[in-house]
Design brief:
This protein is α/β, with parallel strands linked by helices. It has two domains: 5-116 and 355-368, Enolase-like, N-terminal domain (Enolase-like, domain 1); 122-342, Alpha-Beta Barrel (TIM Barrel), CATH 3.20.20.120. Helices cover 32% and strands 21% of the residues. It contains 13 helices and 15 strands. The protein has helices spanning 60-71, 86-90, 97-115, 119-122, 143-155, 171-180, 199-203, 223-228, 245-254, 264-267, 270-282, 296-305, 355-360, and strands at residues 5-20, 25-38, 41-47, 130-132, 134-137, 160-164, 186-189, 213-214, 236-238, 259-262, 287-289, 329-330, 340-342, 352-353, 362-368. The strands form four sheets. The protein has a seven-stranded parallel sheet with strand order 5-6-7-8-9-10-11. Strands 3-2-1-15 form a four-stranded antiparallel sheet, sandwiched between helices. A two-stranded antiparallel ribbon has the order 4-13. Strand 7, helix 7 (199-203) and strand 8 (213-214) form a beta-alpha-beta unit. Helix 1 (60-71) packs across helix 3 and helix 9 runs parallel beside helix 11. The radius of gyration is 20 Å and the shape is globular.
Length: 369
Amino acid sequence: MKLDRIVLRHLQMPLVHFFETSFSRTYSRHIVIVEAVSDGLSGWGEITAGENPFYNEEWTESAWMIARDYVAPRLVNRELASASDVDPLTRHIRGHNMARGGVEAAVWDLQARQNGNPLWKEIGGGARKEIPCGVSIGIQDTVEQLLGKIEQELADGYQRIKMKIKPGWDIDVIRQVRERFPTIRLMADANSAYTLADADRLKQLDDFYLMMIEQPLAHDDIIDHAALQPQLATPVCLDECIRSAHHAEQAIRLKAGRIVNIKLGRVGGFAEAKRVHDVCEAASVPVWCGGMLEAGIGRAHNIALATLPNFTLPGDVSASKRYWKQDIIVPPVETTAQGTIVVRDEPGLGYELDRDFMDHITFRTETVS
């Protein structure tokens, strides 16, 4: 394929309910959408960076600049044998995986549409036709508010509950959750809120038979996690610190965790996500698909990714209505009563874009041609 142009769109979408992690509270998302155009056909990607450089070093403005000034110019007007070429052509850009990955995802969607294939087939997925879903629930104002949200999500059929934690919102809160819901599949996500000095506190989580504790220590650390995991019965799941297949290999070698969360943007797109998946599968380390408060395009990409065979645990790929009053795709992503998402077979990401609504919430566009 030869890309004629790449169009960036900056959208603003208010969340249905605020979402709070250990590092910030979010009320509204600023999202960069990527359109890759070739011979009149468009593929769509979503850059999943947050509004601030808190999850990692990327944020909306940095992603916009990197995609516009560095990623897109390396791809436009260039003959690509396949979407797999995007990764090596942009890999020398240090970091900025979310900017790179959002553009790469658009090219994969374009290629799938050119070939008349659903995106999951184009990337080599298809191990399952329904994706098991969990939900991520942010830190709430009160424990009762948290318990009410968990009750509602369970009523909607979700198979796993992930709750955000931080010092002061951890042991006692999880204890109350377990008292109310003694048998649910429950995990805790710390988003790097602790240090190795907190090991004794983290050991107390073993009392609550959690599925895992996600990224308890620093966002760029593997070594301290390797020191922590032997002290815990609860599996450690690595998120922020796994940005490549090489990181996954190092973590597995050091026994730094027993589970890996794969986020498409964090690792730089489908090519590297598949390599991380394969490294973990070879080592019998299960993976699951994490979320970044994506709009419908990114959500559809996550569904395709989660059809790869080693995504054996329920991910954070939940229904659009949990986050958005109106999504930018038609139909919105929906879950079944059993807490699954049925994988669609239409070409590309499997959903139509609501172009009128997307235009309505777009306040900036730029084209690289």
